[in-house]
Amino acid sequence: MSLPNATEDLSSEMEVDAFRRLFPLRYFERHLAESIRPDGRPLKEARETSIFLGAVASANGSALVKIGSTTMLTAIKMEVMTPSLESPDEGCLAIDFHMPSICSPIVRPGRPAEAEPVVSKQLSDTISSSGMIDLKELSLVGGKAAWMAYLDIYCLDADGALFDAALLSAVAALSHLQIPAVAMNDDGKIVLMSEEDGQKQAKEQVNKEKRKLTLKSIPLSLTCILHKNYILADPTAEEESIIETHVTIVLDTSGQLISLYKPGGPVLAFTSAIQDCVALTRQRVKELKSFLDQANSAMEFE
Amino acid sequence: MAGKSGTPATYSPSPTTGKKKSTLFKEDWIRPDGRGFHQCRPAFFRTGAVNAASGSAYAEFGNTKVIVSVFGPRESKKAMLYSDSGRLNCNVSYTTFSTPVRGQGSDHKEYSSMLHKALEGAIILESFPKTTVDVFALVLESSGSDLPVVISVASLALADAGILMYDLVASVSVSCIGKSLVIDPISEEENCQDGSLLITCMPSRYEITQLTVTGEWSTPKINEGMQLCLDACAKLAKIMRSCLKESASDAQDESS
Prior knowledge:
The complex is a heterodimer. Helix content of chain A is about 30%, strand content about 30%. Chain A is of the alpha+beta class. In chain A, strands 1, 2, 3, 4, 5 and 6 form a six-stranded mixed β-sheet that branches. Chain A has a four-stranded antiparallel β-sheet with strand order 13-12-14-15, sandwiched between helices. The N and C termini of chain B lie far apart (about 50 Å).
């Protein structure tokens, strides 16, 4: 990453690294003028993305997702609850996003990151409003027992676009989730069934076989940052700290808009800019969907 | 979606055929994972797991998986008094899904201070006056011998961050179950142990930074246990050293 030969700017007399730290915005704009980003990417390209399913052996569903250096580990644990009176035939999905202090220098133990509750709320809103999961599928015995799915997302390395990576890992873990086979015993408690004693038990089987959830639509997202007339896809932490205007767009795989976040920032998002962002997201969603399908078919192959 | 207040009480469905603990560890038992009594789990180390940190390391000992990030040396908290030597700050936390029953990992509040005590003797604190080095550990999956694994990985992460140390710190624990000593115990073994012994040492200097003994031990047993741990620590340190050398030579290859 060397700067182009400057003419009379300070940067000609200064080391690149010092210039980058002292004048982050100028450093950044010099790159934009050349249509390239500090990490060598074109403006509208997302970072390399990988999905690995089944990373947590003890969970019912799990996924490890990397977008560039941003790493998310998601695990789902299924527990049993008594459903509420208002919705006796529905289970529940509890989504929590965690930023442990290992993930970034700005998070310290006992002082949670500002982004943590924001991303947590965004994720639950997005997943519930997308209608991806039918909560009725999580019911076991109407009015008596239902599944409570605890979905915990841990950020292991924070390098920008946290929401995108968190959503992708949540969706991937849900696609990997296997609901265990259970039966109800005489005390009305739900117990696991092991494969050997499946037949001989006189218990009432409530979920005969391991099964997967049917995911109706899959929400996927792309975050862009806006600076002057530039649109940059999938920002790194450094870029996010320099530019304050973020737009996050969530689409489902059929291209339907699920949500759009533009939390403040000095750049006004005109219709054309938003349309460009949506177009970028549409492309990215296709790409992410194919990664997800690949990861899932690799699991079946094993 | 489910707020803390309105969350209904939940439980995880238990298997129908629950093994009784007493039957598991009779006279001639074999370890649940089939290891010999004096055989450690295969260890896997990798440095540079977290880019956002100054140094980091990840390790897998069987199903125990730990990640450690090191930040700094950086400015100490404002409230701290002036100090000629550097400060070390440690924190150990668990993911909610690390234990078989969700959310039990937070029971280990004492691990943070034990990690601090195990490491502080090995770090040359004078080399970063007035500043603080933060060592944060996250246990991704817990399956026994968590603390010794955390300590070993933390020393590797410190080395990766370039913090000056007298030597790498390796840590191994031994459980006493009935008449036998088992090294590097898994959770099931730890749950029914009669006593445990944990040694943290700097193998090349042959110095011990921490020794914890709990439960009932006879003198010959303690001697045997300590010898087992020290031998295992020496072997562990070799593996850690080779991991560091590998990542250093990889970095050289990339730059050349």
